[in-house]
Write a structure and sequence with these properties.
With 234 residues, this protein is an all-beta fold. The protein is 0% helix and 41% strand. The radius of gyration is 19 Å and the shape is globular.
């Protein structure tokens, strides 16, 4: 995890690992991104400082092969997505959706600019997906073509997705795929989506009432919920 000027890696007993924490003179402006490209524990840590991205290995050393040329302020924490055997590092910078390869070079160039909301970038229906400031769903395909859909979301909508399921929450609404549910008014954290034993579960935390509720894929509340809580669950 990162603080404004440090990146920490701790073991299970809370002890610093190796060369960590790393110290930075300039402020870290997004949560540190942790990648394990090949699922072999050869970790990469990507640190965001306004327009700059710095890549470190598991020993806290700069990765020399990574060279991102900054163009705009990075608005979202970079995400790693693998599709058809290729790696994509994806984030919003300025009004561009940046889609890079492992070396920090453009793998796909989006053909249009986007007024981004503060939502992360997801991979949904084989497209890189986020929301713009109007609450419209914006998607970029593998050829860089940009499409937009107006789905009735407002500018404050929060989303999460799996590869085939989109979940959105705004005001007192929760929409799972095409099914819209009415909630009590509250102060909700972004929805969470879990895929367990071939079933989809959606978690929602209301910090106003301090309740955590778990829904099935049809929007029904699971037995035993809500439970007391003020944070996301795992």
């Amino acid at each position: 995890f990162s603080t404004p000027n440090k990146v920490y890696v701790l073991d299970r007993l809370g002890r610093d690992v190796g060369a960590f924490p790393l110290n930075f003179k300039d402020k870290i402006t997004q949560a540190v991104s942790v990648f394990d490209y090949d699922k072999n524990k050869n970790y990469r840590f990507l640190v965001t400082q306004n327009k700059s991205l710095l890549m470190y290995d598991g020993n806290g050393k700069r990765v020399k092969g990574f060279a991102y040329k900054s163009k705009g302020v990075v608005h979202t924490a970079p995400q790693h997505i693998r599709y058809n055997g290729k790696d994509f590092i994806v984030f919003a910078a300025g009004k561009e959706l940046k889609i890079l390869n492992r070396r920090g070079q453009d793998r796909i160039r989006a053909k249009e600019s986007v007024d981004f909301s503060d939502q992360d970038v997801f991979f949904y229906n084989n497209k890189f997906t986020t929301l713009d400031t109007q609450g419209d769903l914006v998607q970029v395909d593998m050829k860089g073509r940009v499409s937009r859909q107006t789905l009735g979301f407002d500018a404050q909508t929060q989303i999460t997705t799996s590869s085939r399921t989109l979940v959105a929450q705004w005001v007192n609404h929760l929409q799972i795929k095409d099914k819209k549910n009415t909630l009590d008014f509250g102060s909700y954290l972004p929805p969470q989506l879990f895929y367990l034993n071939d079933k989809i579960y959606i978690a929602l935390t209301d910090q106003l009432t301090q309740k955590v509720t778990l829904f099935d894929s049809k929007g029904a509340v699971l037995s035993g919920f809500p439970v007391y809580g003020i944070s996301k669950i795992d």
